[in-house]
Amino acid sequence: MCPARLIVLPPAYRGSLTGERIARVYASADVGAPAGLLAANLGVQLVALPSGPGDEVLREIADQHRGETVAVIAPTLDLPIALPAGRVVIEHDGDGWSILPSANEVTLATYEQAADRFRESIPRDPNGPLLELLDLAGDRLRPGATVLELGSGTGRDAVELEERGYRVRRTDAAWSFVEMMRADGFEAGRLNALVDDFGGPYDVVFADAVFLHFDPDQLAVVLRKAREAAGLLAFTTREGDGDEWSNRYLDLPRHFTMWQEEPLRQLLTDTGWTVLHLERHQSRVGGWFYVLATA
Fold this sequence. Notes:
This is Methyltransferase family protein. The protein is 30% helix and 28% strand. The radius of gyration is 20 Å and the shape is globular. Strand 8, helix 6 and strand 9 form a beta-alpha-beta unit. The termini are far apart. The chain contains eight helices and 15 strands. The chain folds into two domains: 96 residues, no CATH class; 191 residues, Rossmann fold, CATH 3.40.50.150. It is of the alpha/beta class.
């Protein structure tokens, strides 16, 4: 039988796990109410763990839930492998623990393999409504301003940004897109928004259809880093509930997180941003938020 998947969550995890089939939630007593709320929302049993559960305890859980997925919430875990911060999926194959690729890593792998297909699947014109939001920044953003673009992708928006007089640093977490932009004659560099330093300072951080690939905890990290790098932020993300995996357009899996307006506004506030403008737009895959915020 397949090994159990243990989704290890930080105590302050904001996500819903709606895309997962969770058999049970395990949590140490020092986590408190969030674990109970998560279990209730998932409609599964909450089971108490000792503080700082170790290898033996977690192996027993893995043996009990072979072929299933469970959530584990504890401030610390005593395991022989080092776990990165945030949501982590681990499994025990009988010989030892291994860390499975995260949803973001799987999504990046898809873009590495399917950059050309992605280019063919999207409009060639830049995202006009998001670019027009920058006009609403007024004196905060003048020609000659510096722009850090996260997830430049094919580079379509960067070209228009430069035509408007801005100086753009093109970046992407996928080498396939970095190489695509370089082949088109532009300077571009690899930057993973979750783990890399943003540099700067810049006048604005610009992210078109990037934040939808981050879960709430990851997005909080990125928003704080953007707050340290620039005084303005312009981005789009999906409107909706929960999260989903999809193979549409690229025939490979990508993970998306959707947002409702109030939680999105609250996260921006919590990470030091004030919303200047928020608009809704529709596309062939559903609703989108277009946001301009100031630090």
